[in-house]
Amino acid sequence: MKKHSAILLLLSCLVFSVGCYAQDLGYHNCNGGISLSPNNFYALAFQGKRGLDKKSLFGYEKKLEVSKNQIWLFFDTPSSGLMRLQIKKTDTPFQIYIFKEKNGALCEDLESKSAKLIYKEPSTVNLNSEFIFVEDALRYGVVLVANSGVKDSLEFSFDFSPQDEFGNEIVDSLLFDLSTHGNAHEYEIHIRDAITKRPVKSKISLTGANEINGAYVASDLILNIRKNIKECELKIDTEGYFSFDKKDHSILLKNGLNDTIFLKPLVRGAVAKIDEIYFTAGLGTILEESGPKLNRLRDFLLVNASVNIEIQGHVNGDGTQALSSRRLSKKRAKEIVKYLITAGISSKRLSAKGFGFTKPVYEFPESEMEKEANRRVEILIK
Question: Do 286 and 185 reside in the same domain of the chain?
């Protein structure tokens, strides 16, 4: 996932994990390993497990005793490239192992000895300057092993740079050119990462004007138009990014026919406002007109199947009913969680929190618009 602005988090379970607490094992075991999101910073702790791993990492370690006090991390490669684990200076000694496998089932491959151990070093080795070439469409496992009982935290970043075996940069782009020669004008949409400004292959949906209606997959889309389109709906979705919605998107010949949309990458700790979700005044009941936006939130979660979110409710208030406003905002957040669960989203990926009026957009709202801005729903990427 591209170069992000660094957000450091203390994690008990990473959002981008696959089965982070599968079988209640936690991330000290292969079956509960955490999936890494490239180009992000992390902070997580050894869980203080005691005793020895009698299997010695499924038999891959033959010379050293292996503690049960482990952290398991996974990375599924979107392409070939260079990965690097940069661990900040720590006084905690630990051992680092890196495995790779081809079948998407690392734990089973370790059991059967079909996974390959490609790296093994103590933490005293400086990983900050060492990149490891990884192959396309493989799963890599990183195992950190500390002494028995240790509960110290580690801070590290995980970097990934898409490259081929010759060192050439790989850019995930796709030109979809539907234009034809003639009197029609060419309209271009370019989708870019808001941080790196690089192309992002996305699903682009346009509705509201017959000549351009459709769903396309591209990072750069070129269409023909023959007249002004004053209002259409533009939706953009891609894994690893916040969705983009614009109901009143205009394509006007006099303004130039080139739009660049910058998508905000998903990073843990990022917060986004969800517009057009409405409730009955003073109650937690969701109004029917909120359906389209809630379905967009559902679609966003389906596209990003490994993302967990916290629904955050906010209300407008004057400070005189702090407890009741907090209860109302949490009730509204819970109602959204219920809606999403009914729509097929796992409850394990959702949580709700109410802030009442403790985090207003406008501390002293003077207009109805400012009050409405304070009444909002946001999502936090956990």
Answer: no
